[in-house]
Amino acid sequence: MLGVVLLAGAVAACGGSDDSSEAVKSPGARTSTTRPSDAASVYLGLTKAAAIARAEEDKRPWRIGREDDEQFMLTQDFVDDRVTFELDDGKVTKATLG
């Protein structure tokens, strides 16, 4: 009997609606129509100092992955809103999110 009650509870938790147009959002989730590549492209061409200042103004975590010929060690954790800069001659030539 307990198994039947648990199974019924599990089915109820899955919902019964076929309306897939309703989005479920977690509290505090960001919603944006800007694609990640577009969001990172705002940093292209900025100086190192300007890119860092803009990232901090946007409250976006940042890091430098490469500066000229020097590659830096990076963690492999995924932070969806973190921007990684690549710099050549003091300017951002590549910026990626994640």
Q: Could you explain how this protein is built, in words?
A:
By secondary structure, this protein is an alpha+beta fold. The chain is 29% helix and 21% strand. The chain has helices spanning 2-13, 36-41, 48-57, and strands at 62-67, 70-71, 83-88, 91-97. A 4-stranded mixed β-sheet has the order 2-1-3-4. It is globular.
Key traits:
4 strands, 4-stranded mixed beta sheet, disordered N terminus, 3 helices, alpha+beta, 98 residues
Please summarize what this structure is:
With 98 residues, the chain is α+β, with helices and mostly antiparallel strands. The chain has helices spanning 2-13, 36-41, 48-57; strands at residues 62-67, 70-71, 83-88, 91-97.
